[in-house]
C-alpha cells in the first residue's frame, strides 16, 4: 500500500507541475510510463484493482497510450545482455517468491505483463510489438502518432522526433 | 452544529454495549487491503479526533495510563508519525511545493505505513490501539481544501473503521484562547496555504471554523461520539473512561459465554 501511495504522490506532483502546465500551453507531453504502470504493478502486489483505478482518477486521460509489449524472455535477455543489475523492487524481490533475482524478475514481471494485457482492452492502449528492431518500432510509433497529431508532410519526412 | 455532548444519548447505556450500531467497526471501510484480511482480530481500535489544540494528547496519555493499570496492552499511533514518511512530510511542508493533492497523498502514505506496520499487527496481538487523530483529520483538511469527497472516501477505503471514535468538540473562540496561551498559531494550522489573507489570526479563525464544520458533518457518517471539550480535563477524561469501560466490558462478555468458540479460533 505504501509503495502504491508513494508512487501516486510522486505522480500527482509531476502531473501538477510537469504535465498539466505544458498541456495548457498547447504542448505535446511525452510520458515515459503512466498510471497504467501503477495499475499493473500494484495489482500484481495484491492491491485492490478498483481501488488503484479510483486513486488515479485525478490523472489526465492520455490522448494516446502506447504499450510496448515484449515477451518476458526477450525482456530478461535484453537486461542480461546489458549486464544490468536487476533492481530489488523491479524484480519483485519484496514479494519473497524467489531468492534468485532473475527467477523472481521472471515471475513478478510475468504477472505484470498479464495485468497489462487486461489493461489493453480496458483502456484502449495501442499495442506496439517491442520484440522487433528499434527502427521498425519507431516507424510504427510515428505512424500511430501521425494519426493523432496534426503534422504537415514536410515535418513527417523530417527525421526528428515529434 | 452541535457544540455539546449533552444532546447525544449516553452511549455507555446502549444495549449493544456501546457498539453504537457501528457494524463496520474493526473492518475495512471500503475495498481494504486484499493481502491483509482482518480475521476477527482481538484488539480494539479507539480514535481520538479533534482539531489542533483541543487537548487530544493530554486525554490519550491519561487514557493510556488508566487502561494499562486495568491490565490492557496499549499501543499509541499518531498522525504523520510513521518512520517512513515523517521526514518527507516535514520536508514537504517546509517548502512551497506542496499542493492539496500531494498533501493528501503524503498523509495517506503515512497512514498506510502505520496501518500495516503498527495498527494491524497490534490489533492482531490483542492490543488496545489509541490513535491520536485518524483519517477524519485527513478528510476534514482535504475537504476544506476542496478535494473531491467521494474520491477521498475511496482513497481511505483501506482504513479500518475504529471500534470507537471520540470527537473532542470545541468552539473556535475557546480554541483560539488555548492555542494562543500555549504555543501560538502556526502556518498550516492557520490554513495560510489557503490564502485567506496575510493576517494569521483571521486566517486561523476562518480555517478552523471551516474545519470544525467539516468534522461535524462527518459525525453521523462515521459514528463519532461527540465529547464537549470545553470542560476541564478530568471531566472529559471521566466521560471517555466511562465509554471505553462500557465498550470493553461488552466486547469481552460474549467470549466468556462461549469459550468453545475461543478454542476453535485458536
CATH superfamily of the domain at 19-171 and 221-249 in chain B: P-loop containing nucleotide triphosphate hydrolases
Specify the CATH class of the domain at 19-171 and 221-249 in chain B: Alpha Beta
Averaging pLDDT over every residue of chain B, what do you get?
85
Q: Biggest chain pair contact, residues each?
A: A-B, 22 and 25 residues
Spans of chain A of at least 5 consecutive residues whose pLDDT stays below 50 are none
SSE string of chain B: EHEHHEHHEHHEHH
Write the layout of secondary structure elements.
The complex is a heterodimer of chains A (162) and B (266).
Chain A: H1 2-24, H2 35-44, H3 49-55, E1 66-69, H4 72-81, H5 101-123, E2 126-129, H6 134-148, H7 153-157
Parallel strand pairs in A: 1-2
Chain B: E1 44-49, H1 56-69, E2 74-78, H2 86-94, H3 100-124, E3 128-132, H4 135-144, H5 149-155, E4 164-169, H6 172-182, H7 200-218, E5 224-228, H8 233-257, H9 259-265
Parallel strand pairs in B: 1-3, 1-4, 2-3, 4-5
Helix pairs in contact in B: 1-8, 2-3, 4-7
Amino acid at each position: 500500500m505504501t509503495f502504491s501511495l508513494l508512487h501516486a504522490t510522486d505522480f500527482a506532483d509531476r502531473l501538477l507541475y510537469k504535465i498539466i502546465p505544458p498541456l495548457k500551453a498547447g504542448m505535446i507531453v511525452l510520458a515515459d510510463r503512466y498510471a497504467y504502470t501503477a495499475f499493473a504493478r500494484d495489482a500484481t502486489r495484491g492491491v485492490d484493482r478498483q481501488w488503484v483505478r479510483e486513486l488515479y482518477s485525478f490523472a489526465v486521460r492520455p490522448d494516446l497510450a502506447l504499450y510496448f509489449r515484449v515477451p518476458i524472455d526477450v525482456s530478461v535477455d535484453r537486461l542480461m545482455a546489458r549486464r544490468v543489475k536487476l533492481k530489488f523492487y523491479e524484480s519483485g524481490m519484496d514479494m519473497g517468491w524467489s531468492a534468485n533475482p532473475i527467477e523472481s524478475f521472471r515471475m513478478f514481471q510475468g504477472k505484470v505483463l498479464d495485468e497489462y494485457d487486461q489493461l489493453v482492452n480496458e483502456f484502449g492502449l495501442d499495442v506496439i510489438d517491442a520484440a522487433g528492431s528499434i527502427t521498425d518500432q519507431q516507424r510504427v510509433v510515428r505512424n500511430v502518432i501521425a494519426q493523432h497529431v496534426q503534422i504537415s508532410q514536410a515535418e513527417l519526412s523530417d527525421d526528428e522526433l515529434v | 452544529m452541535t457544540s455539546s455532548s449533552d444532546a447525544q444519548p449516553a452511549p455507555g447505556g446502549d444495549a449493544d454495549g456501546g457498539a453504537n450500531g457501528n457494524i463496520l467497526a474493526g473492518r475495512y471501510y471500503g475495498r481494504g487491503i486484499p493481502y491483509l484480511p482482518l480475521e476477527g482480530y482481538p484488539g480494539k481500535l479507539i480514535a481520538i479526533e479533534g482539531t489542533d489544540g483541543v487537548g487530544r494528547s493530554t486525554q490519550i496519555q491519561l487514557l493510556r495510563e488508566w487502561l494499562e493499570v486495568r491490565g490492557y496492552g496499549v499501543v499509541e499511533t499518531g498522525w504523520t508519525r510513521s518512520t517512513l514518511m515523517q521526514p518527507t512530510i516535514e520536508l514537504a511542508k517546509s517548502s512551497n511545493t506542496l499542493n492539496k493533492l500531494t498533501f493528501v497523498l503524503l498523509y495517506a502514505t503515512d497512514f498506510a505505513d502505520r496501518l500495516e506496520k503498527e495498527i494491524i499487527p497490534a490489533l492482531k496481538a490483542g492490543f488496545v490501539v489509541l490513535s491520536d487523530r485518524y483519517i477524519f483529520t485527513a478528510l476534514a483538511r482535504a475537504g476544506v481544501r476542496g478535494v473531491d469527497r467521494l474520491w477521498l472516501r475511496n482513497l481511505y477505503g483501506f482504513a479500518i473503521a475504529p471500534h470507537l471514535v471520540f470527537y473532542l468538540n470545541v468552539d473556535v473562540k475557546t480554541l483560539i484562547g488555548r492555542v494562543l496561551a500555549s504555543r501560538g498559531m502556526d502556518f498550516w494550522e492557520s490554513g495560510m496555504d489557503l490564502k485567506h489573507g496575510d493576517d494569521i489570526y483571521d486566517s486561523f479563525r476562518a480555517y478552523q471554523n471551516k474545519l470544525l464544520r467539516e468534522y461535524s458533518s462527518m459525525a453521523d457518517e462515521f459514528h463519532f461520539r461527540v465529547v464537549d471539550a470545553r470542560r476541564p480535563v478530568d471531566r472529559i477524561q471521566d466521560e471517555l473512561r466511562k465509554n471505553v469501560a462500557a465498550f470493553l466490558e461488552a466486547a469481552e462478555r460474549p467470549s466468556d459465554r462461549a469459550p468453545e468458540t475461543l478454542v476453535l479460533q485458536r
